[in-house]
Amino acid sequence: CAVGGGLTMPLGVVDRKAPEIVAKFPASSYGPYYLSPNSDGHNDSLEIPVKISDKRYLVSYAMTIYKGSPSDGKAVRVIANKESRPENQGFKGLWSRLVYVKKGVPVPEKLVWDGRFDSGEVAPDGEYSVEIAATDDNGNRGVVGPFPVVVDNTPPQLELAAADASLIF
After folding, report:
1. How far apart are the first and last CA of the chain?
2. Contact of 130 with 146, CB cutoff 8 Å
3. Which residue, 15, 77, 89, 133, could crosslink 65 as a Cys pair with Cβ 3.0–4.6 Å?
4. Which pLDDT score is estimated for 51?
């Protein structure tokens, strides 16, 4: 027969400050970023260099792409962290769990949207918004954005119509 007990007692000041997010959005001279995910090597993806910091550690981050504005509530793509855990099988896994030091999730140097929805289909032409959010271990959430993005996959077309056959240039 075994009996166990435990006590968790926080010491110090409670962290109520949201994670700090620094994102360098690559806006164009026209305002929004123009994305053309047609695999021609030009503006095929949106890359946002990002740095997220907190006094303690992060438990999650996400870049959410909305059709229109975030207030419309139509998220079409979510790019987020994956939880990393120590292995939990066998003796080696037991030791890993016993000596595991709680730490935050790693944040990449940049977040990338390839112009596709969560379903895998290419985003149709239109206006989109991008928000980046992060949450720390105390539940504080920081958000930056929305950043405007325009998806434009339609190539320009030119039509010439001769008004007068005698005009030569």
Report:
1. 100
2. yes
3. 77
4. 93
Of the candidates 61, 81, 85, 82, the one whose C-alpha atom is nearest the C-alpha of residue 135 is 61
φ/ψ of residue 77, rounded to 5: -155, 135
From the list 24, 23, 47, the residue with the least C-alpha distance to 37 is 47
Long-range own/partner contacts, residues 118-121 (CB < 8 A, 24 or more apart)? 118/76, 118/77, 118/78
CA 6, distance to chain mean position in Å, is 38
User: What separation in angstroms does the CA of 16 have from each of 1, 20, 26, 82, 138?
Assistant: 42, 12, 31, 24, 7
How does pLDDT run across 36-87, given as a tens digit for each residue? 888 787 888 999 999 998 888 888 899 999 998 888 878 999 999 876 555 4
Neighbours of 167 (CB within 10 A): 7
What is the phi-psi region of residue 43: left when phi exceeds 0, alpha when psi lies from -120 to 50, beta otherwise?
A: left
CA distance 107 to 81: 8
As a three-state string, the secondary structure of 43-88 is CCCEEEEEEEECCCCEEEEEEEEEECCHHHCCEEEEEECCCCCCCC
- Cβ-contact 127, 32 below 8 angstroms: yes
